[in-house]
Amino acid sequence: MTAVTTVISAISQVYESYLTTEWVFGTIASITTVIGIIPQVYKSYKIKSMRDVSMTMLINYFICSVSWLIYGYCADAKFVMWSNVICTATSIICIMQKCKYDKIDKR
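User: That's the sequence. What structure does it adopt?
Assistant: Structure tokens below.
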């Protein structure tokens, strides 16, 4: 019976450590941040144009994502860190799309 009690206690501790206010809002923030940029990548790929997207905004988004990534690493905030790994990658994709499609649009 002590093994079962130990397992239940361990599960309870894991459950309590993950279901905190910080975890809930970190999850919501991570998901909504990623959702914000992925549709732009998809739409740009589909229409092969980024004429209406500002390069300044894309560079700002990249700098912001990298800064949050570094903060997440330093603060050991895994949700912040991993969501911004995705955001940094998608911002790089958007910047590459902007450069490529703007060259095509100028022809």
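The chain has a mean pLDDT of 83.
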